[in-house]
Amino acid sequence: MGKKMEPQKGEGLPINLILNVHRRGDGTVLLAICDKDVHGKTFREGKLKLDLSGSFYNGEETPLTRIKELMPVATHLNLAGKQAVSLGVESDYIQGEHVLFIDGIPYAECVNFRE
């Protein structure tokens, strides 16, 4: 740990995110958002494992504007990769000091309590 994820505003990088929307019968919506460059890979550090290769993250490349529209209505956010986690930090869903790094890859989760 010890690192803090900061928003990546102004870097001018293209946003390449994979989105998988998980809708449950009870009305909950979980967004699994992953950077395209780490999608399909598995990372390990000590006893920690970040598996981005399974069906959970297996979605479609989605425009940033669409992801930003969906984030407020989601009940859970699961973010993996620099761009995905930075989006969570920029959007005030994730606090930078609560980001976990596994083999250098940022990872964060959020439960979005709605009124």
Helix content: 10-25%
Mean pLDDT: 88
**What general outline do the C-alpha atoms trace?**
globular
How would a crystallographer describe the biggest sheet?
A: 6 strands, mixed
Radius of gyration, in angstroms, nearest whole number: 13 Å
Pattern of helices and strands: EEEEEHEHEE
Terminus-to-terminus distance: 33 Å
What's the count of strands? 8
List the total number of helices: 2
Q: Please mark out the parts with pLDDT under 50 across 5 or more consecutive residues, or reply none.
A: none
Q: How would you name the oligomeric state of the polypeptide chains in this document?
A: single chain
> Strand order of the main beta sheet, please?
5-1-2-6-8-7
In percent, how much strand structure appears in the residues? Answer: 25-35%
Structural class: alpha+beta
How would you describe what is shown here?
The strands form two sheets. The protein has a six-stranded mixed sheet with strand order 5-1-2-6-8-7, covered by helices on one side. It has two helices and eight strands. The protein is 14% helix and 34% strand. Strand 1 and strand 2 (29-35) form a beta hairpin. It is of the alpha+beta class.
